[in-house]
Amino acid sequence: MKVIDHLTNAKETIFSFEILPPLKGQNIEHIFNSIDPLLDFNPPFVNVTYHREEVVYKRLDNGLLEQKVVKKRPGTVGICAAIQNKYKIDAVPHILCGGFSKEDTENALIDLAFLGIENVLALRGDSLKGETYFVPEKQGHTYAKDLVKQIKDMNEGIYLDEELQNKTPTNFSIGVAGYPEKHFEAPSLNNDMQRLKEKVEAGADYVTTQLFFDNQKYFDFVDRARAAGITVPIIPGIKPVATKRHLSVLPHFFHVDMPDELISAIAACKDNKAVRQVGIEWGIQQCRELKEAGVPAIHFYSMGKVDNVQKIAEAVF
Fold first, then answer.
1. Which long-range contacts (CB under 8 A, 24 or more apart) does 25-28 make?
2. Is the pTM of this model over 0.85?
3. Contact at 8 Å (CB) between 117 and 85?
4. 18: annotated active-site residue
5. What is the Cα–Cα distance from 50 to 30, expressed in whole angstroms?
């Protein structure tokens, strides 16, 4: 079933979450152990991230460095197929511009369609380590809106090879990312909203936001989106704080602000166990307010740790 249908048909706020593929060498039980504790909250869909290649350097015996390109977390497509087969829950794989040519993208979407996967989250993706700015793959997409258009075209039976015979349209529901506090590369909030509108106009069915810790930023974001003519569902994304290190890590990597009240509460904690409890309590407060406001779903960025998500869900869903 499509995510947009789940959102449209739901009578109350949906619980959903995102998982990371395990590191290369680990088995799929790692994924199942992350999903099992959250099944009680009836997630109709689960997102599975895709991690593009990384550049690593290995020192050779002669002292020189050898550059290698590796993927540390492969397996997104296989994990999605396993989730749908084992749990009968819809899987939402991330599809990136970064690391994919248009041909690669088309082939990946064909594989997903063959597996009965009807949902994708279309993202530009991050730049490679060492790159100041995002560099698209040769013959690849520079912007997420163009990736959305390619997926939408396939839904209409339009493939890269115009001479293909008996082309079968795909049937994907397309999600995209939104940034309540602005994408860090955007020059302004208004410019960032225009980029989001372009993704929706290209064919996106819904938006899932970057994580945030101040609900007012989400409410303001939704108001700006509606004023800009964006009418699709906008799902808030939540990440519980779990360690003191998150005070610097989360703002750095996700370009988000933390409320002073939350910062003070974390700074006063004696250890990470206490921080984790602060994160749970803050998450409960956030989610209760969001649910009372009638948001279509609450999407949790679990990042492989689900016990705090479980405790928040127990209090809210």
1. 28/75, 28/78, 28/79, 28/82
2. yes
3. no
4. yes
5. 16
Q: Find tokens 């997420």 and name the residue.
A: 144
From the list 230, 234, 235, 170, the residue with the least C-alpha distance to 201 is 230
Query: How do residues 56-100 score in pLDDT, each as one tens digit?
Result: 567 777 766 666 555 656 789 999 999 999 999 999 999 999 989
Question: Which DSSP string corresponds to the chain?
Answer: --HHHHHHH-SSPEEEEEEPPPPTT--THHHHHHHGGGGGG--SEEEE-----EEEEEE-TTS-EEEEEE-SS--HHHHHHHHHHHH--EEEEEEESTT--HHHHHHHHHHHHHTT--EEEEE--PPPTT-SS--PPTTS-SSHHHHHHHHHHHHTT--S-TT-SSPPP---EEEEEE-TT--TT-SSHHHHHHHHHHHHHHT--EEEEEE-S-HHHHHHHHHHHHHTT--S-EEEEE----STTHHHHHHHHH-----HHHHHHHHT-SSHHHHHHHHHHHHHHHHHHHHHTT-SEEEEE-TT--HHHHHHHHHH-
CB neighbours of 245 closer than 8 A, spacing ≥ 6?
none
147-203 pLDDT tens trace: 999 999 999 999 999 888 888 999 999 999 999 999 999 999 999 999 999 999 999
Among residues 12, 18, 163, 185, the one annotated as catalytic is: 18
> Is 1.10.3210.10 the CATH classification of the domain at 3-316?
no
